[in-house]
Amino acid sequence: MEICKEFQVTILRIKEDSAKRKNWMMFYRFSNIVILQV
To answer: Does this model's pTM top 0.90?
Structure first.
C-alpha cells in the first residue's frame, strides 16, 4: 500500500517537474516495465 502511494507521488512530481511529452513518454515506458515486473 505504501509503495503505491509513493509511486503516485512520484507520478505527480514528474508531471509537475516536466510537463514535456518526451519525459512523460519515457516515464510511461518505465511504468510499463515496473508493472510487468510486478
So the answer is: no
